[in-house]
Design brief:
This protein is an alpha/beta fold. The chain is 40% helix and 10% strand. It has helices spanning 6-16, 21-27, 316-320, 353-379, 386-414, 423-428, 430-462, 473-492, 515-546, 554-586, 594-603, 607-618, 621-632, 638-658, 668-684; strands spanning 55-59, 65-66, 79-83, 90-91, 96-97, 104-110, 115-116, 121-122, 129-130, 149-153, 171-176, 183-184, 196-200, 208-209, 218-223, 232-233, 246-248, 267-269, 290-292, 335-337. Strands 1, 3, 6, 9, 10, 11, 13, 15, 17, 18, 19 and 20 form a twelve-stranded parallel β-sheet that branches. The chain has a three-stranded parallel β-sheet with strand order 2-4-7, with no helix packed on it. It is elongated, with a radius of gyration of 40 Å. Mean pLDDT is 79; it is low at 21-27, 132-147, 309-314 and 660-692.
Length: 692
């Protein structure tokens, strides 16, 4: 073998060097303080009395057990600190017993301490702090002159503190970062102190707080923050307790607060408590003065909450003669944060009562009208033509809009007067996402189909005599398939982070915080405006194409102009207000509040969905014929159905007698005239069910 390299020899030399003195000191166990004995892996003994000993610090000791009566006779000790002892596993019953002057106990950073026997803390009348010292290593603690705590241990259940019997005012108990404690049991703190107490129980592994957990206590403050697994707090957790005045449940998974014992709370802190989506009735918080919550909508619960006005007890003349500040008698104003923003004002989903009535009428009209059209068209004995196919697509889109309005109206009815308690569940839940998808999908598919219907009518009239140019079903199906894919994609984008349906209670994609969201909103609006321009242009061309004095009378000319005007007006009424205000909002210059935008939602947004089934189907003669023929199958309106059958038969016989057969072949001009007349009749019937 070759000689070892220089680097290897240097490494071996460094390993052979003795460790530096500071390192040896750190590795060496701390000396056992007098009068204690600290045998390795043994039991700690600190017998007394010991004159002048007021503080006993037991750190980095190799002890395994703190036995019963370990500190007997140390009556002058005020503070005992046990920390950084990884070998400590157990504290036996009566370990801290009858220490009459002891005011502070600190047990922390003993990760192998898994068991503290019941009765370990007994008869400590002067004990005031079970919290941290001035420079505690407990990461969540707040400095204070004297403290006592049980932090960062391996214990699996809450220590028994019911036999302390302290008589000190404002007793402080701090239990933190004990990740294996899962439950606060019944009567956990009963007998600990006869006066007021502060409980700092944060950063533990709590999952449940049982009924009567704080029974027998007078709570000033209860801190349950950062118990990340805490999900359940029993309704009677505060039963038998007085207080607390301050309650902190920040960064927990609590889904509900107890309904009993909230009357005494003056300060409520619940930041980052995302599972707490519903608060108890606001009448429960009779003394609340300050609330710091997670969701802005919860502050709506405390708007106009009556406050205690103590000045009513005394007359103003009685108070003015006294030489002291009587400001405490004045009514207190409740402070709540975060405040509701412009997108989520303190109101129900439908901000006005008249909208609550109208939305029900409109959604029922839209649903029944479009379902009727779909049913009649799909069950008709006549073959499925391009106009019928397009009308089915339009009716389905408008039916989806009706479903959206029905969903919004139903949730509004269920949450009336208490929407602030349901806002988070609704806006962040699947219900709002489904409603938002329905409305965007329906809106875009409806606009797309209206545009295709208009283009199909224009194409049919423009190329009337060119039969090979006629749009057939095999052409219409892929065109509409593209519309379905486009509408589905547009409606899906807010579900994957491009804008959001959760921004407002009516579940429209109003989130324009990011550039991508702004582009999304503007793209939709520009496409809708372009569709409206195309529809207007096509109807104008259709009008001029059929306006021929040789073909029709002036009154018919006026009639078709009026009907086209109605179609364009309904489209304009639906699109113009929405587009105008939405474009301004997309540029973050809103010209209308969310409250007022709900008026647009109910009065203008669904206009097409209600009008389309009537303008394009129900008011046409072809649809009425199909409708009565369908009813005759169920034994209704047989006479009307028979009239339509005879009329169709007469028209067929007439065509056979005067048809274009044999030597009676029409001229090219006659054929064009007849075709234009037929197309004109189709325009009058909106959807042009009739075919030449």
């Amino acid at each position: 073998m070759g000689r070892p390299s220089l680097a290897l020899r240097l490494l071996l030399a460094l390993l052979l060097l003795p460790p530096p003195a500071p390192l040896l000191w750190a590795l060496r166990p701390a000396p056992c303080p007098e009068p204690c004995s600290c045998p390795p892996d043994g039991a700690l003994r600190c017998p007394g009395p010991q004159a002048g000993l007021s503080r006993l610090s037991l750190t980095y000791l190799p002890i395994k057990v703190i036995p019963s009566q370990a500190f007997r006779g140390l009556n002058e000790v005020i503070k005992i600190e046990i920390s950084q002892s990884d070998s400590l596993e157990k504290i036996e019953a009566n370990a801290f017993d009858n220490l009459l002057n002891l005011s502070e106990i600190l047990i922390q950073n003993t990760k192998n301490l898994v068991h503290i026997e019941a009765g370990a803390f007994t008869n400590l009348p002067r004990l005031k702090y079970l919290n941290n010292p001035l420079y505690s290593l407990c990461p969540h603690s707040h400095p204070a002159p004297n403290h006592r705590s049980i932090c960062n241990t391996g214990i699996h259940k809450l220590p028994d503190v019911t036999k302390i019997f302290s008589s000190e005012f404002n007793f402080i108990l701090e239990i933190c970062d004990n990740l294996h404690i899962t439950t606060i049991p019944r009567n956990a703190f009963q007998g600990m102190n006869n006066e007021s107490i502060t409980l700092k129980l944060y950063g533990n592994g709590f999952e449940e707080i049982q009924s009567h957990a704080f029974n027998g206590t007078t709570l000033i403050s209860l801190e349950l923050k950062e118990n990340a697994r805490l999900e359940k707090m029993h309704n009677d957790a505060f039963r038998g307790a007085t207080g607390p005045s301050i309650l902190d449940i920040s960064s927990t998974k609590l889904q509900a607060l107890p309904t009993y014992g909230l009357e005494s709370i003056q300060t409520l802190i619940a930041t980052s408590s995302y599972s707490l989506k519903k608060l108890p009735s606001r009448e429960k918080f009779t003394n609340l003065l300050d609330a710091t919550l997670t969701y802005p909508s919860h502050c709506c619960a405390f708007r106009n909450l009556p406050t205690n006005d103590y000045s009513a007890i005394f007359a103003e003349s009685e108070l003015s003669g006294w030489d002291y500040d009587y400001g405490f008698c004045l009514p207190k104003t409740l402070q709540c944060a975060p405040e509701p923003d412009a997108f989520n004002p303190c109101e129900d989903i439908m901000g006005y009562d008249f909208l609550r009535v109208l939305i029900w009428l409109i959604n029922i009209l839209a649903i029944t009208g479009n379902v009727t059209v779909l049913f009649v068209l799909l069950t008709s004995r006549y073959k499925l033509t391009v106009p019928r196919f397009l009308m089915c697509n339009l009716s389905f889109a408008d039916f989806c809009m009706g479903l959206y309005l029905l969903l919004i109206a139903s949730v509004d009815a269920q949450t009336k007067g208490q929407y602030y308690n349901h806002a988070i569940d609704w806006q962040t839940g699947s219900g709002c996402s489904v409603a938002g998808f329905f409305t965007v999908f329906a809106s875009e598919l409806s606009v797309y189909t209206l545009t295709v219907i208009t283009l199909e009518r224009w194409h049919t009239i423009t190329y009337a005599i060119q039969l090979d140019q006629k749009l057939r079903l095999k052409h219409a199906i892929p065109v509409m398939l593209g519309g379905w894919l486009f509408s589905t994609l547009i409606a899906m984008l807010p579900l994957v982070g491009v804008s959001s349906y959760m921004k407002v209670s009516i579940c429209l994609p109003m989130d324009v915080e990011s550039t991508l969201s702004q582009v999304y909103i503007l793209t939709i609006l520009i496409l809708n405006v372009m569709a409206f321009i195309i529809i207007c242009a096509c109807y104008i061309k259709i009008y001029f194409a059929v306006q021929n004095p040789e073909l029709m009378a002036t009154n018919k000319d006026t009639k078709i102009a009026k009907k086209m005007a109605v179609l364009i007006f309904t489209d304009f009424t639906c699109m113009a207000p929405i587009s105008f205000f939405a474009i301004s909002a997309a540029f973050k210059v809103p010209l209308i509040t969310v409250t007022n935008s709900k008026v647009l939602l109910v009065l203008f947004y669904p206009v097409n969905s209600c009008a389309n089934p009537f303008l394009y189907a129900i008011f046409t003669k072809a649809f009425q014929r199909d409708f009565f023929l369908l009813l005759s199958k169920f034994g209704c309106c047989k006479y009307r159905a028979e009239l339509y059958r005879r009329k169709d038969f007469s028209a067929y016989i007439s065509n056979c007698k005067n048809g274009f057969t044999g030597s009676n072949k029409p001229s090219r001009s006659t054929f064009k005239l007849t075709t234009l007349q037929c197309q004109y009749s189709a325009v009058l019937d909106k959807t042009c069910y009739k075919e030449c």
